[in-house]
Amino acid sequence: MELLDGKKTSDDIKFEISKKVEELKAQGKKTPHLAAVIVGNDGASRTYVNSKVKSCEKVGFRSTLIELPDTISEADLLAKVNELNNDDDVDGFIVQLPLPKHIDEHKVTLAVKPSKDVDGFHPENLGRMMLGLPCFLPATPAGIVELLDRYNIETSGKDCVVIGRSHIVGSPMSVLMARNAKVGNCTVTLTHSRTKNLAEVTKRADILIVAIGKPEFVTADMVKEGAVVVDVGIHRIDDPSRQSGFRLLGDVKYEEVAAKASFISPVPGGVGPMTIASLMLNTLKAIDMK
Ligand code: NAP
Question: Are 184 and 240 within one domain?
């Protein structure tokens, strides 16, 4: 088994981006600037946003963290989004999800200007992705494509099964794996909670991408010998024996599935860092999209 090491790969990408930022600066061009909006105090969301901001610093981007209380009204949040849309100094921005229940996430996603939508969640970007036009690809699926590419995983003609059909991970992932591209040309099966005999379907997968949001759901008996397994899930499990008070698990029962897989992405250190790397790549692209 070989590790799909997202941490190392994202470090390589960040190094490459930092070189490009140096070039931009040497040419007297603008330093890329990413803004991140976080609403409320959810611990996991804060950790994700903080690592995004820290990564910006690492590659030489400018970053702005906008912290808003969970009591903010939908109208005030939309006004903040509009402000960022119109701020020429900000090249791209994200609004960290999930949002408090009284705010309609779709409204917020739709309000983000597509040319600054570095998370790739706006329908205009998703539609352009479907048509193969220039766009921001959704950060997590794009990070997985990049990871498979950098490990030279052969995808053409392979059976790919995706578990989960969310708008931010599973659905766009299935589109990317089926498109006519270097990482693509798979025969894709997109599964969800109504899929019958899931294990029978997953056992046919040469490439299994798991975004179900249930800790250690995928077990060895669901995986074909030699499969490539990508684990998108992240779960904080209470663990008083650790200083942090928790440990991270994925959607895949790692040890037993790793014993059968040819390649597997770990949690942590797999898809998470690749999502951040994608966000950085999208921010760099935002300069050209302007
Ligand atoms: P989500 O919106 O909760 O979607 C989960 C999907 O799994 C749904 O499509 C659901 O089907 C399907 N599902 C639930 N139970 C199932 C079952 N028994 N059999 C088959 N399918 C089932 O989750 P998400 O936002 O895609 O996230 C998935 C996981 O990835 C979470 O752990 C999340 O924290 C993690 N994540 C990680 C990153 C990263 O950067 N590493 C980024 C995003 C998300 P239905 O549609 O039928 O309900």
Answer: yes
